[in-house]
Specification:
Layout (H helix, E strand, L loop, with lengths): L3 E3 L6 E3 L3 E2 L22 H13 L4 E3 L8 H9 L8 E6 L1 E4 L4 E5 L3 H15 L4 E6 L6 H5 L2 H9 L3 E7 L3 H7 L6 E7 L7 H9 L3 E5 L30 E2 L2 E2 L1 H14 L6 H12 L3 E3 L6 H8 L1 H4 L4 H14 L9
Parallel strand pairs: 3-4, 4-5, 5-8, 8-9, 9-10, 10-11, 11-14
Antiparallel strand pairs: 1-2, 6-7, 12-13
Length: 335
């Protein structure tokens, strides 16, 4: 039986592992030809991978309006054309982009843009509603996020969304937003065995929210992948907010941290990626990791965690022992 979790106070049930659809969006470019996507992608393989995920028990797919300037939503919509009622779809708004040129064109937090962005997402996805709509602006001031609540509640009333959330790494922002937002049910944030956010998990617990984990495999660092990354891949020219890679290769400091925990993560026969996902499932009953994918093989590896379940307690404790040795003096340990 597939392992499931609830999307917070919405009560929406999803597979405990979802699929993050950033990579299948293909290229997206920022200023100075800064890559904001994961490079060229085979759409037919992406569709096969989505179908494989469903066959292996995945019911939760997370995308965004700007992944590949909308291309991710189009591919996901194609893959789910005759399977919409089997899945829960999450998308995001806030980062504008131009489909024709595959260019990022800025940020927009206006309520009217939220509505327009959702309508465009619905067209690309080929559906009349999304299950979870998320604000995609990590650093937006909470007061501006709160200005969106009435609009988002209206979209719930209209049946165009079932619930909403915020993709932010700032616990204070989530704590300011959730109590004032009746249908807020999830916070999406960076969370992995390499970078824990205990404060955010506490906020999710306090307000009955799901913790949707982006970057659960540190954008490939926790998959044991070693290939050099191209100039059209965001990891190939990593921006400041992406610490794992430099010049298209893993940063030695972080690669060494992976080496420290590898044995514990793989002790019960899991692959490194499966161990990292199992650690997240053991970390909190609210976590829903959403590893990215581009191939059927990646999906098949990651979805085995639905059968393997959380990392065993002894292995989790061993991972924590290694991590505690790596933390600076005075740093908090996971609750």
């Amino acid at each position: 039986m597939t392992m499931t979790r609830k999307l917070g106070r919405s009560g929406i049930e999803v597979s405990a592992i979802g699929m993050g659809c950033w990579a299948i969006g293909g290229p997206l470019w920022g200023d100075d030809r800064q890559p904001l996507g994961w490079g060229e992608v085979d759409d037919d393989e992406s569709v096969r991978a989505v179908h494989a995920a469903i066959e292996h028990g995945v019911t939760f797919f997370d995308t965004a309006s700007n992944y590949g300037a909308g291309h991710s939503e189009r591919v996901l919509g194609r893959a789910l054309a005759d399977r919409r009622d089997q899945v829960v779809i999450a998308t995001k708004f806030g980062h504008a982009s131009d489909e024709a040129t595959r260019r990022a064109t800025g940020e927009d937090h206006r309520p009217e843009y939220a509505v327009a962005s959702l309508e465009a997402s619905l067209r690309r996805l080929g559906t009349d509603h999304v299950d979870l709509l998320q604000l995609h602006l990590n650093d937006l001031a909470p007061a501006l996020a709160l200005d969106l609540v009435d609009t988002l509640e209206g979209l719930v009333t209209q049946g165009k969304i079932r619930a909403y959330g915020w993709s932010t790494d700032h616990p204070a922002s989530a704590a300011a937003f959730a109590p004032a937002a009746p249908h807020c049910t999830a916070i999406q944030h960076d969370q992995s065995v390499l970078r824990d956010n205990a404060e955010m998990l506490a906020v999710c617990e306090k307000y009955d929210l799901a913790s949707i984990n982006r970057g659960p495999l540190a954008m490939g660092l926790l998959t044991a992948a070693t290939r050099s990354l191209g100039d059209d891949d965001v990891r190939g020219r990593a921006p400041e907010w992406l610490p794992w890679f430099a010049d298209g290769r893993p940063v030695p400091e972080w690669a060494q941290r992976v080496a420290r925990v590898r044995a514990a993560l793989t002790a019960d026969g899991r692959t490194l990626a499966q161990g990292a996902l199992g650690w997240l499932l053991a970390r909190s009953p609210r976590t829903v990791p959403i590893p990215g994918f581009r191939t059927v093989a990646q999906v098949e590896e990651n979805t085995q965690v639905l059968a393997l379940g959380p990392l065993p307690a002894d292995a989790y404790a061993e991972v924590e022992r290694h991590l505690s040795e790596l933390r600076p003096a005075g740093a908090a340990t996971p609750a």
